Structures are given as C-alpha cells and as structure tokens.
Amino acid sequence: MVSHLGHVHLRVRELDRAIDFYTEVxxxxxxxxxxxxxxxxxxxxxxxxxxxxxxxxxxxPSDGVGLYHxxxxxxxxxxxxxxxxGLIDRGVDVSPVDHGISKxxxxxxxxxxxxxxxxxxxxxxxxxxxxxxxxxxxAL
Length: 140
What we know:
Layout: E1 8-12, H1 15-26, E2 29-34, E3 37-41, E4 49-53, E5 70-74, H2 77-89, E6 95-98, E7 102-108, E8 114-120, E9 133-134
Parallel strand pairs: 1-4, 5-8
Antiparallel strand pairs: 2-3, 3-4, 6-7, 6-9, 7-8
C-alpha cells in the first residue's frame, strides 16, 4: 500500500530561476542537478520536488484538466506570515484564503505552476464548511 507522496515533478521555463525560487521561498535544498533537471529536498528524502527545464518558449499551464497546484504545509503562523512577506517582496501575486480548516496562500512559481502554502487549523474547527474567505497574513 502507498504510504506517502514521493515527490512533485514540475516543468519550468528556466532552471536557475526556479531553483532560486524554491530554495529561497520554500526552503528546499538542491540535492542533485543533472542537465535540465534539479532535485530539491526538505532534508529527509533525496527529493521532494523535481524540476525539469523545458525552455523559455514553453506554453503556460492551461486552466483545463490536469494538476491544479502542489501544496506545502508549514508548522506555524509565523512561517506562513514570513513566506507571505517574502513573496510580496519578490513581487509575486498571492491570494490568502481562510478555509476554516487551513489558512492558505495561493501563488505561482516563475513558470506559472500553481502552488499552495498552508497552515493546518483543523484542531480549531469541527468540520470544513467550504469556507473560502480572504484573510490578512500579516496579522498572524
């Protein structure tokens, strides 16, 4: 039986730019780099994210069927707030959403891949009601 998600493989336009983004924004570390590929880890596995450079002229991700986003969890409100502030400093458009069971930041990497960074808040609520309200991450 499957025990956990092994990794997320993302196609990116510029490998160096993507590496900078994922290491600086999400705190991943490069474990290996081979040709058009880079493998990044949070420290336990060889890689949690695989990046594959497909070129600057590659088409943008579509809004149709397919991967919507990759999500990463933080442990504390301070980590969520710090990441939000770092994204804003980089000029990244961020949509903060309070789902009740989580507080989430939705944004895109430099190649347009959808990402979510969230803080699990289930312990404070009994069930998810489908809530999708904006919140101010700087108030965390």
